Amino acid sequence: MASQRPAPRAASPAPPPPAAAPAPAWLPWALLAATLAAWLIGVRGDLLRPSIYAQDTWLADALLHGQLHLRHVPDVPADLAFWQNRYFVVFGPFPAVLLMPLVAVRGLVTPDVLVLVITALAGVWGFYQLVRTVVGEDTGLLACATLTFALGTALAYGAPMGGVWLHTQITATTLQVFALLAAARGRAWGCGVLLGLGVLTRPTVALAAPFAWWLLAQRMPAPRKGAPRPTPLWGLLTPVTASMLVLALYNAMRFGDPLDGGYLKQMISEPLAFRIREHGQFSLAFFPENLFGTLLRPPLWQKGALVPDLRGMGLPLTTPFLLLALWPGKRAPFEARALANCALIALPALLYYNDGSMQFGNRFALDWEVLGLLVATSAARRAPRWLPWTLAAWGVVVGAWGLQWFRSAFQR
After folding, report:
1. Angle at the Cα of 364 (from 189 to 218), degrees rounded to 5?
2. Cα–Cα distance for residue pair 197/96, rounded to 1 Å
3. What is the DSSP string of 68-97?
4. Contact status, residue 123 vs residue 155, Cβ threshold 8 Å
5. CA dist., res. 311 & res. 15, Å (int)
6. C-alpha to C-alpha distance for 101 and 107, rounded to whole angstroms
7. Is the pLDDT score of 410 beyond 80?
8. Are 173 and 126 in contact (CB under 8 A)?
9. Contact 168/204 with Cβ under 8 angstroms?
10. Which pLDDT score, from 0 to 100, does residue 19 have?
11. Is residue 284 part of a domain?
12. Count of structural domains, the chain
């Protein structure tokens, strides 16, 4: 009788990778402290003075006196719109609304830079929570991504220096961060309200709605059999639509046209005005140079030293952590969607007649860098462990250079 061979034993499945331990509760506060310390050192503790281009303060003063045109007109009315012998701020009104209580007390000497720093710190905290919610609990990557966002983007020099362009940009970015965080937590109305306030700050914030909708859809409860799937669109779009109507009314009250934001009435330099006359405010003619500035523009070599280009420099130099978004391997489901939404948000700035000028790095990139850094953080899990730390450290060092240069070149 033939001997029976024992049946081969089935290979045991590989154990699942261990879940990342929760990040320590003190980590976000340590990152906020490091960010604030870097800004205080960079401006030598000087956060209590108004910025030179405090147009949001001037608009807050006008609103407190029941009018939309400025009562205070500076000696150099940069970027104001002149219409029917009156001066108007063309940027969204929400930052000025936030400043109104302080302006009611302090007047035109309101420390708008301090308000901007507080706004930016709130955005840094929200960004940490967003990465933690969407990407995961990896302590090292949370630290790298958050420090990059705070000290390796335009926030690094923008928050402690102020000025209407940076105040508007950073306020809008903070609103976008919290809108996406609300979406990641399944709060459609909260996300919609925050995006709506973003529209009243910088309308391009609304272009983050597709990814916000996807985040919300992932958190909708599964429908009962035969029932239609619930949708978050109502809560998302209603506040955004209402804000667009408010903005249209605001434009009509200022310039007699709900679609006229005053940008074509701005008091700008002749070279910029010529570009608008030749090609309009948005044109494919501007795309090549804007793309070059965003990705490739290098610093200048002057008198034996590297000097930042006044028009900004390429993001691989100033924020190299973003390059991790291109790291190969199996992608998380949200990565492709976030990258596509990045392209949508970036498109208006790439077609714009003005590349941002008078900047370090690229401040318009803040419109989409929140999503870009989310993807980079997720992709960093596939990269060698040392690489995210190296790229984050590079961005922080370059950001410190930017703050020192910007402060010396453009004193408030």
Report:
1. 30
2. 12
3. SS-S---SS-TTEEEETTEEEE-S-SHHHH
4. yes
5. 52
6. 10
7. no
8. no
9. no
10. 56
11. yes
12. 1
**3-class SS at 24?**
coil
Q: How far apart, in whole angstroms, are the C-alpha atoms of residue 327 and residue 317?
A: 17
Residues in the chain: 412
One DSSP character per residue, 226-278 reads: TSPPP-SHHHHHHHHHHHHHHHHHHHHHHHS-TT--SGGGB---HHHHHHHHH
Global model pTM greater than 0.85? yes
Q: 87 - beta bridge partners? A: 82
Q: Tell me whether residue 276 is in a domain.
A: yes
Core vs surface per residue 211-237: b (16+ CB within 10 A) or e: bbbbbbbeeeeeeeeeeeeeebeebbb
- pLDDT for res 407: 87
Q: For residue 181, what are the domain limits? A: 51-220+232-409
Beta bridge partners of 80: 89
357 vs 63, more confident: 63
What's the pLDDT tens digit per position in 199-236?
A: 999 999 999 999 999 999 888 766 666 556 666 788 89
- DSSP conformation class of 331: P
What 8-state DSSP symbol labels residue 361? S
Report d(CA 405, CA 158) in Å as an integer.
Answer: 12
319 touches 366 (CB < 8 A): no
Residue 365, token pair as written in the block: 């990139």
Kindly state the tokens that stand for 203: 């309308």
Strand 300-302 vs strand 305-307: parallel, antiparallel, or unpaired?
antiparallel
pLDDT, one tens digit per residue, over 168-211 is 999 999 999 999 999 999 999 999 999 999 999 999 999 999 99
**Residue 277: both structure tokens together:** 């006359």
* pLDDT tens readout for residues 119-153: 999 999 999 999 999 999 999 999 999 999 999 99
AA identity, residue 363? R
Residue 122: both structure tokens together: 């709130």
Which residues pair with residue 282 across a beta bridge?
Answer: 352
Give the model's pLDDT for residue 269. Answer: 85
For 231, residues 6+ apart whose C-beta sits below 8 A from its C-beta are: 217, 220
Task: Indicate whether 15 belongs to any domain.
Answer: no
Per-residue pLDDT at 350 = 96
State how far the Cα of 163 lies from the Cα of 185, in Å rounded to an integer. 33
Whether 102 maps to a domain, the answer reads yes
- CA dist., res. 105 & res. 400, Å (int): 34
Mean pLDDT of the 309-337 span: 94
- The mean per-residue pLDDT over the stretch 364-376 comes to 97
